[in-house]
């Protein structure tokens, strides 16, 4: 059997640092001031936090040093049919307000300014049932990097399947990553979902570069390290169950911690890893795209083979 090529998003230098990508302060509908919230995340072991108040860029650099960094951001409602209705997206590292309307123009303007875009809570039924992102629209949009698969404030268990369906349809040319977040408004939302970002330094540039490269995994509890080595995908974790899932949604191997190993066969398209923790939390890797020598990486599924409806 010819050796397979496995594209590993974690094959970059650095170490994992805890980050929060979605939280609200008293500048919108949160209960903590920016400084109070930054202090709380720092005390809880976070290295990065992005404020995402509604319609307002929040910045708070009071506590920034070589070990902690709070970055500006904003949660923008895509007026549908008019604001404040419609789905939300996060403009991470956003330097200022937007002066455009519509999802794709918002993404384009954010990326042009050096920011990273995350599509928020795709299964959300709020905003008078206008708040969700359909799979078809997430496939069509270009330039964003992340989709929330776990959001405590607007919990939708099917968001993992929505993300996987988008991955399968878009293919490796335009991959998109999974994120878990607090979407903090009240104390009960705190530290319920986060990402572990692999960076060499505690700088905004290093942080945003890791998000763009998807050198990040999402978690609501378990810790993990994922790597492709010696023709296999390996997961070292404190979780009790490790599931290796292909582009069609099939479980190819079910293992256990502290280490699980899967050797791809070549027909997976991609392999993603889900870890189930002892207390019910989960962790999600990004996609490892699988291809044979000389073949383009990954497998792009046609729409009729999607694992979830649009």
UniProtKB/TrEMBL annotation:
Domain spans labelled Polymerase/histidinol phosphatase N-terminal: 19-80
Question: Where would you find the membrane-spanning parts of this chain?
Answer: none
- From the UniProt annotation, give the residues forming the signal peptide: none
> What superkingdom does the record give?
Bacteria
GO MF terms held by the record: 5'-3' DNA exonuclease activity; 5'-3' RNA exonuclease activity
UniProt-listed PANTHER family? EXONUCLEASE (PTHR42924), POLYMERASE_HISTIDINOL PHOSPHATASE N-TERMINAL DOMAIN-CONTAINING PROTEIN (PTHR42924:SF3)
Which named protein is this? Answer: Polymerase/histidinol phosphatase N-terminal domain-containing protein
Organism, scientific name: Candidatus Segetimicrobium genomatis
